Amino acid sequence: MLARSSTGVEASRGMVQEFKSFSWELVLMFILMLKGSFFVFGAAIGAFLLGLLLVAMFVKEKKKARLEELERRAYEEEALQVSMAGHVIRAHNVHDGDHHHSR
Length: 103
What we know:
mainly alpha, 98% helix, transmembrane, membrane, transmembrane helix
């Protein structure tokens, strides 16, 4: 009976060892599955962040172009006003000159 119990203990130890080995295999498989999921999840987050970056760069460039256009228009408007003021002054001088010659 003692031999049987030692064999039973050895069998139990073998089962425990087998269970531990099997559980490590399950843990390893689970980690590998999670690693694949994390890779996909990480890739999705990376793609999303890259998309946000591209949108931000596009908006920045568009804003810069808009500001440059506003500057150009303001410069043209100012140049036109200076040109018109010069024309008015010249026209005024011409008319004043006509009055002086006619006297």
